[in-house]
Amino acid sequence: MSVVIPWLGQFAKGAVVVLGVALVALVLTIVWGLLGAAAKLSGNRIAGAIADAYTTVFRGTPELLVLLIIYFGSAVTLTWIGKQLDPSVRFINIPPFWAGAVAISLIVGAYATETFRGAFLGVERGQVEAARALGLSSSQTFFYVRLPQMWRLALPTFGNHMISIVKDTALLSVIGLEEIMYVAERGMTMTNKPFTMYAVVAVFYLAFVSLIIIAVARLEKRLNRHLVRAR
Amino acid sequence: MLKSFIAAAALAVSAFIAAPVVQAQEVLKVGSECTYFPFNFRDVDGKLKGYDIDVADEVAKRLNAKTEYSCLKFDGLIPALLAGQFDLIAASLSITPQRKERMDFSVPYRLSIGQFVAPKAKKLQLFDASNNVLKQNFKGIRIGLQRGTTYDSWFQAIVPEAQVVRYETVEQMYLEIKSGRLDAIMTNPMKTYLEFLSKPDGAGFEVVGPQITDEKYFGTGAGIGIRKGNEALLKRIDTAILAMKADGTLDKFSKLYFPFAIYPIN
Amino acid sequence: MSFDVALILQSLPQILEGVGLTVQLHLISLAAGTLLAVGLALLRISPNPALSWPALVYIYVFRGTPMLVQVAIVYYGLAQFEMVRNSPLWPTLREPFWCAIIAFTLNVTAYTAEILRGGIQGVDRGLLEAGKSLGLSAWHRFTRITIPIAMRLSIPAYGNEMISLLKGTALASMITMYDVTGVARTIVSRTFAPYEIFISAALVYLALTWVIQQGVKFAERYFNRHLRK
């Protein structure tokens, strides 16, 4: 056990990287999820088809593969796009931190699309009709009536998505991101204790996941406070 | 709720845009494995060190440029270079005809050799007295290799029927040969001697067979990898390396890790 | 930018060689995990805390840690211990195949137990009360009412778990196996064309996912046949 101590500093650095990627991925996941849900609910055939293709592809492909494709392919694609816009562009490359965050967000975003779509459908029509009747514009209705209520319904499942985001960060060592799995891999031969090193990684993830579960439970309570009945 | 969402999204997007830093001095983006002691590795305090790193940094200094390293698993280095993730590879990359079809190399700054390592107790006999491969003795044993290395190509050409297990890192191979999952591994003998055979855990292991330097598979040595089409930069790098050989810098770097010279003397 | 479409098609036959291993890993872990999950689910809903607490901890640990970490601990971690290497289990644990099966099975067990628990607890209490008043024993109530209904309720979530497991099998490539992803990575390290080869591999997984989804649709129709007009 004591063999781990000199490595704790590196583990801590790796943990910070994981947190960073998870946060960026979280923001992007919400973006893709809302866009996808909006596309599917809009009634527009083309938008719906694109969103369907998006969810099918990203829910059906292993996370490891998506990560590898985005890391190796993104530079090629972006450079090609860049060259179309400005021929003097030499190369646009994506550091593994961003490639990883984008890849994870696209994957979990596909699941979030379905979650948000179901949640939007769950908002009572009566509320939307009342809002329009009171004179609120389409976008005002969206931001002040539909979105907050959608969150209340989506939160439990979205909490699971947040946990998925955190767990997927473990794969990033494959594309060279120096996070905690990477530290464990390097340390395991030097210390000759792969079990211990990986156990530390497992404990870290359990702690991170537990924090999310607690935070989501608190948030759920707060969002549902108007529904608590008086004794 | 909405305001914080917009703020967070704006922050993420602006960080994304700011990520590529604009520098006044020429920056050479270099890809390396970073876990290949003693050629490229991270010290316990986190600093990148090693023969490959020393050579790359010195070349950059002579070109009036700064280096910026990206660490990646070995088998991902060449695809990443070709995709534009970085400009150079300094990772003990051997110069082989197969690789030269897709990329260019500098002049070699290190010798390339391979050798088998196996437990003493097994008494493996993989080569005969005149150093020819004894193919039948490869049957039924498991040999560990790092994915994408020249050892992989040698195996494919010379003993394709051998049971080869491919790993991402050399560390994993050492663990596996210690636990008994592998019967032998093929790797760089200089490196293996320093980090494994001369240490207490390596006591029960030894090199088996001769050092293999077949140029067809191992190439003429290890060089700095670069994409095709960068002739000007390549010339500057070659000039720097040859100068480093002539004025004894390569020798100095070699002696930091080995009691002998590891660059091609010709 | 050169995007070699021909390469995608050329590499498919080689990549398909990995399908056999992927399917084996998937089916064996799924079957073993589901079987164990039934027991675990029963422990989890047991009123006796000495039974339900360990079950809860097991489920929490396996759902709260990344599958990659679980696979690495079973493959590299267990081999660290002399006791394991000298035990009669070693010939099995020595093989990456069995290490992968063990890790995947432990994972599937945890997730499936939760799915089954959700299904069991979703059975309408009224139906159980009706059964009781009709004189059915506890065992009969469980096997004739709870289980069939719980199975029907669990199908969508179980279908998702089957797909999750399929995606998880790609992690076998991280412990030296030549499943679809493992074969793809080896080809990439020789041809240096990651984009095309990995897309090829992704297409294979999408095809396998489609097969699972068809199976789930069929199962849903079958289990809901009493609701069709």
Write the layout of secondary structure elements.
The complex is a heterotrimer of chains A (231), B (266) and C (229).
Chain A: H1 8-41, H2 45-60, H3 63-85, H4 96-122, H5 125-133, H6 138-168, H7 180-191, H8 194-223
Chain B: H1 2-18, E1 26-32, E2 35-36, E3 40-42, E4 48-49, H2 51-62, E5 65-71, H3 74-83, E6 88-94, H4 97-100, E7 103-105, E8 114-119, E9 142-146, H5 150-158, E10 163-167, H6 170-179, E11 184-187, H7 189-197, E12 205-212, H8 215-218, E13 222-227, H9 231-246, H10 249-257
Parallel strand pairs in B: 1-5, 1-6, 9-10, 9-11
Antiparallel strand pairs in B: 2-3, 3-4, 6-13, 7-13, 8-11, 8-12
Helix pairs in contact in B: 2-9
Chain C: H1 5-16, H2 19-44, H3 49-64, H4 67-77, H5 82-85, H6 90-93, H7 96-121, H8 125-133, H9 138-168, H10 180-191, H11 194-223
Helix pairs in contact in C: 1-10, 1-11, 2-3, 2-7, 3-7, 4-7, 7-9, 8-9, 9-11, 10-11
Describe it.
The complex is a heterotrimer of chains A (about 230), B (about 270) and C (about 230). Chain A contains 8 helices and no strands. Chain A has helices at about 10-40, 45-60, 65-85, 95-120, 125-135, 140-170, 180-190, 195-225. Chain A is flat, with a radius of gyration of 21 Å. The mean pLDDT of chain A is about 85. By secondary structure, chain B is an alpha/beta fold. Chain B folds into 2 domains: about 1-110 and about 220-255, Periplasmic binding protein-like II (D-Maltodextrin-Binding Protein, domain 2), CATH 3.40.190.10; about 115-220, D-Maltodextrin-Binding Protein, domain 2, CATH 3.40.190.10. The longest helix of chain B is centred in the first third of the chain and has 17 residues, at about 1-20. The N and C termini of chain B lie far apart (about 70 Å). Chain C has about 230 residues and is mostly helical. Chain C contains 11 helices and no strands. The chains are: A mainly alpha (about 230), B alpha/beta (about 270), C mainly alpha (about 230). The interface between A and C is large, with 42 and 41 residues.
